[in-house]
Amino acid sequence: MVLGVGGGIAAYKVCELLRLFVESGHEVRVVPTTDALRFVGEPTWAALSGQPVATDVWDQVHEVPHVRIGQRADLVVVAPATADLLARAAGGLANDLLTNTLLTARCPVMFAPAMHTEMWEHPATRENVARLRDRGAIVLDPAEGRLTGADSGKGRLPDPQALFLAARAVLHRAGASADLSGRHVVVSAGGTREPLDPVRYLGNNSSGRQGYALAATAAARGAKVTLVAANTSLPDPAGVDVRPVGTARELNDAMFAAVSGPEPVDAVVMAAAVADFRPTTTAESKIKKTGGTPTIELVPNPDILAALTRAREADELSARVIVGFAAETDDVRRNGEEKLKSKGCDLLVVNQVGHGKAFGTTDNQAVVLGTDGSAVEIAKGPKEELADRVWDLVVDWPA
Ligand code: CTP
């Protein structure tokens, strides 16, 4: 693979990304811009990659590097992608080795932009990003947080581990196109918690891993992703807008806010484990055992998935596909079929939970039931693999 490095301060984080690639067995050719070398010098890239490092097309000319490096690559990752580099790539310039490489590469190209918020939001950058995405490049949205200096906002380079997982998701699909490019998808993940008092809650064992895998793989397939995350402690996936929530009602509000935003929603996936009931009241102070054995009265929570499908029926929501998950401990298939009908969604990913299955594990297996009568078995495998199969079905679902 090729790791293109732009001239931004975040270049130092890319050393860690390079290590992750090399340690997992990839052959990585680092192609920095001249300005990138002001931040991290050539010996660092050469030592970490074990490969020669060049910035312009006049080094080792007999090897025709400006053509060969791009042609040979299975994946090009550009991190940090500066405003200048995005502009040059969008304009098709070929004034250094990296831009030449971008023009000759026929493999997937993933840009991880990092810059100040103003530069990211400038219409020129917006246009350049849109052009690159239109051409099938994956341009991850930058993360929010502390920028260089005291300011903070959107523009941070996602963490190396998150970038590594995004790149791996692209490679995993063996050069398949960015087929979710231009689409906005909203995913829920994790498990809601319903407070009993200031320190206790009713909750469940969902880790959020399946929802995070769905969000990360969608971003790696070019989608704009909003992830509503209930009580998770996982790192933010690269390029994903993460909105943390606690209770089912907060999850409900965050989902409806996400699907009603300015960007039309193409697909909604409810992977979160939602508490069906909440305590009627939340004690303001800690419940003391001296008060005797408490009786906890519960009231139903909104069924968010059913509410989303009702909103679509009422033309208040345009989502082309709505996907539910069903966690079942017994009679998995029959319960799944009933749930597909009662929820009104298009696809239902049914998996067996309990007895060490699904919750908190890294592997998952499922059958995906469709309202068209389809039943697609997904064999046991990493949650990222299941996520990719679900997105395949979403992509193929008719409008
Ligand atoms: N779901 C939801 N709102 C709820 C409960 C569930 O949106 N209050 C969604 C889940 O995110 C999932 C699907 O509905 O996509 C099925 O969740 P599951 O817990 O399997 O089913 P329930 O509807 O809760 O039914 P039961 O617990 O009786 O099996």
Number of strands: 19
Q: Percent of residues in beta strands?
A: 15-25%
CATH structural architecture of the largest domain: 3-Layer(aba) Sandwich
Helix content: 25-40%
How many domains, as an integer? 2
Overall outline = elongated
Task: Kindly provide the name of the CATH class of the largest domain.
Answer: Alpha Beta
Going across the biggest sheet, name each strand in turn: 12-11-8-13-16-17-18-19
CATH superfamily of the largest domain: CoaB-like
- Number of contiguous helices: 14
The CATH topology of the largest domain turns out to be Rossmann fold
- Ligands (ions, cofactors included): cytidine-5'-triphosphate
> Which structural class do you get from the secondary structure elements?
alpha/beta
What do these coordinates show?
- The chain is of the alpha/beta class and 399 residues long.
- It has 2 domains: 2-172, Flavin prenyltransferase-like (Rossmann fold); 184-396, Rossmann fold (3-Layer(aba) Sandwich), CATH 3.40.50.10300.
- The chain contains 14 helices and 19 strands.
- An 8-stranded mixed sheet has the order 12-11-8-13-16-17-18-19, with helices on both faces. A 5-stranded parallel sheet has the order 2-1-3-4-5, with helices on both faces.
- The longest helix is centred in the C-terminal third of the chain and has 14 residues, at 383-396.
- The radius of gyration is 23 Å and the shape is elongated.
- It starts with a strand and ends with a helix.
- The chain binds cytidine-5'-triphosphate.
- Cytidine-5'-triphosphate binds at residues 248, 270, 272, 274, 276, 301, 303-305, 324-327, 339, 343.
